[in-house]
Write a structure and sequence with these properties.
The chain is mainly β and 665 residues long. The chain contains five helices and 39 strands.
């Protein structure tokens, strides 16, 4: 080693001497250039300090913020918002939206337990299933379209638990006033604090919008490619070790888990097109339109577990029961769907918009093998074609906005949708709305057919349709925001563990033959005093059912006390405070990685623990900086009693930071 060291000394000395020579040459050239400019340039130098007139001219040349539009599939329009508010703090997470009512698992990019029923938009058509993998899966109605005066870029960055990062990059531009496209990618990699908890996900989006000069033809289209890989550890086996707060287990990878080599993977691609053509050449009080919507999507899901048996303490168990294959599990399922909707619409400025349509929905859900249940050969696929007809009415004038949709199947399947809403907006601070929905919903495919190398995870069913009847009343006022939600569910489909053996999950689908009624009241109010504010959101839920099937906490609350102020001549806007999250104890659903679904259990309660976050946020021009100490009060409790699901601990104390940065070129 000394020989190597002495051999490197001449190289080091030569490098230092060379750097000095280079620096001297650069400095001499710089001095010569400056000297020659001072002696030969007779023109007066331009001041680097901009005058008020120059600043005013630059401001007048900038496009207003209303020139940067965000448009939904339903043609609702908002504008790009670069401000920093408490809502931006709530939206700064992996899902990029307020996740009140969702309880995240320990690692970023895993699944969420649901504390509030009714967060997801339901469709009467059968869906793929495997809902635990779809919280961050962007559906067609989640995609936004844009119209911008100049190119717009947004960068989102946030640190993760360990070994990775979360990034969402987006750019959109208009090549002309009539043509826009956008490209975006959200990627995540996080190893997590526990054994076998890796998250690696990606969401690619491409959108385009176009309309002719006469505005006779409009089109919105997008393409998405999404994939999600998760290590599945099945939860911790030694609850006592976790709850004891022993220093030995502060390093969470010392806690034993059920699965050390299992993983799940889902990917999907979608092509979507929504366009319309006005028959009359000039837009007027009466317009006749032809409409068409096309959606083609394919999905692939795999569950892989190399070692069938698990170790819990000194016992060897099969966590999911007996298996056909002893060499490892590799369950795979594929799904394709194609949807076409063709309609004609009549628009009248006084009467509103009337639309009549027919649609065609085709799907193929399949495995590459067949299996036999009770000497009956079960099919390896479900496929069908569903046709329906319907009508939709939309009205918007002055302070009123309403819509009503009716759809019914014309093929053999029983499929019905009734969806109506009405909104009355008094002013920007006061509005009221009422929504009603009645669904006769076909079962998701996972309930009717599932194949697995695990013996007890094979089934072929013919469940009845779910009947869902719900109303929602919303009031947004300057005094209080409140919503009342009531729903009645018949023939509810769910999963339940039928195992009588400890540490073994034998989860199967079931249909509840009684009625479930739910009533919930949600209220939010922000109180401001001086530079302080207290933002409160409270949710009350009450379920009426004969058996404990739909389990929800009765109370969920989020309270945020924060301070805001400007600094450095208003160049910096600062926001700092504490967020308090809490929900009452209840029998939370457990998670099954083989199915990527939550299932009903009534053996263990979670909840009744405070989750407190401290945050410091700042805005400098179009940049928002976020710093948060998550769950900082976990170190103050006598025991660890915080869970996201039975056997799945919630997140420990962690400091995370990141930013959201907008560029207007």
């Amino acid at each position: 080693m000394l020989d190597t060291f002495y051999k490197q000394i001449p190289i080091f000395v030569t490098y230092k001497i060379g750097m000095r020579i280079v620096f001297s040459v650069v400095f001499s050239l710089f001095s010569l250039i400056v000297f020659s400019q001072e002696t030969t340039n007779e023109k007066p130098k331009k001041s680097l300090v901009k005058t008020e007139e120059q600043k005013a001219k630059e401001r007048s040349q900038k496009a207003p913020i209303t020139s940067y539009k965000i448009i939904t599939l339903d043609r609702d329009t908002t504008f790009v918002d670069t401000s920093l508010s408490i809502k931006k703090e709530y939206d700064y997470n992996y899902l990029r939206k307020d996740n009140f009512g969702l309880l995240p698992f320990a690692n970023e990019g895993q699944t969420y337990n649901t504390l509030q029923y009714g967060l997801n938009k339901l469709s009467a058509f059968p869906e793929f299933g495997y809902k635990g993998k779809h919280f961050n899966y962007l559906e067609a109605h989640d995609i936004k379209y844009y119209s911008v005066a100049t190119p717009l870029t947004e960068l989102y960055f946030k640190t993760v638990m360990t070994q990775g990062q979360s990034l969402d990059a987006f750019i959109t531009l208009n090549t002309s006033e009539r043509f826009n496209f956008s490209i975006a990618y959200k990627g995540l990699r996080s190893l997590g604090k526990y054994i076998n908890q890796l998250s690696s996900t990606g969401n690619f989006r491409f959108t385009t919008s176009y309309h002719t000069k006469s505005k006779r033809y409009f089109v919105n289209a997008h393409f998405t490619s999404q994939d999600f890989l998760n290590g599945e550890n099945g939860g911790i086996t030694t609850i006592d070790d976790f709850e004891s707060k022993s220093p030995e287990f502060i390093e969470r990878q010392r806690l034993e888990v059920y699965l050390t080599d299992a993983k799940s993977f889902i990917k999907g691609k979608r092509i979507f097109l929504d366009h319309n053509f006005r028959i009359n050449s000039k837009e007027g009080n009466n317009n006749l339109l032809l409409t068409h919507q096309f959606n083609y999507e394919n999905k692939f899901l795999e569950y892989n577990q190399k070692t069938v048996s698990s170790t819990t303490g000194d016992k060897i168990i099969n966590r999911f029961g007996e298996a056909f294959a002893t060499g490892g599990i590799n369950d795979q399922v594929r799904y394709n769907r194609m949807y076409n909707k063709i309609g004609a619409a009549y628009e009248n400025e006084t009467l509103g918009k009337f639309q009549f349509f027919i649609d065609d929905f085709r799907f193929n859900y399949y495995y590459n093998t067949i299996f036999i249940v009770s000497n009956v050969v079960a099919p390896n696929s479900l496929n069908d074609a569903i046709n329906s007809f319907g009508g939709q009415y939309e009205y918007q004038k002055n302070k009123w906005k309403g819509s009503f949709l009716y759809s019914n199947s014309i093929t053999n399947q029983s499929l019905t949708t009734i969806d109506g809403s009405i909104k009355y907006k008094i002013d920007d601070k006061n509005e009221f709305s009422f929504q009603y929905q009645n669904l006769n919903k076909l079962p998701d495919h996972i309930y009717n057919l599932h194949q697995s190398s695990f013996l007890n995870y094979n089934w072929f069913n013919n469940f009845k349709n779910e009947k869902i009847n719900s109303i929602q009343i919303n009031a947004k006022t300057k005094w209080l925001n409140a919503s009342l939600f009531a729903t009645t569910i018949n023939d509810h489909l769910y999963f339940m563990d039928e195992s009588t053996t400890e540490n073994v999950q034998l989860v199967i689908p079931k249909q509840y033959d009684s009625t479930i009624k739910l009533l919930s009241l949600k209220a939010s109010k922000e109180v401001k005093f001086w530079k302080l504010a207290l933002d409160n959101t409270i949710l009350f839920q009450k379920v009426d059912q004969q058996d404990a099937i739909l389990n929800l906490p009765e109370l969920v609350t989020r309270n945020t006390l924060y301070f805001t102020n400007y600094f450095f001549k208003k160049a910096l806007y600062l926001q700092t405070g504490v967020i308090f999250n809490y929900f009452t104890k209840y029998n939370a659903n457990d998670y099954n990685p083989v199915l990527s679904e939550f299932f009903v259990q009534n053996n263990k309660e979670i909840g009744n623990f405070a989750n407190m976050d401290f945050f410091i946020n700042a805005r400098i021009k179009q940049t928002r900086i976020f710093i948060k100490a998550e769950h900082f009060n976990s170190a103050l409790s006598a025991t660890n009693s915080f869970y996201a699901a039975p056997n799945y601990p919630y997140r420990d104390f962690l400091i995370r930071f990141g930013l959201v940065w907008n560029f207007f070129q």
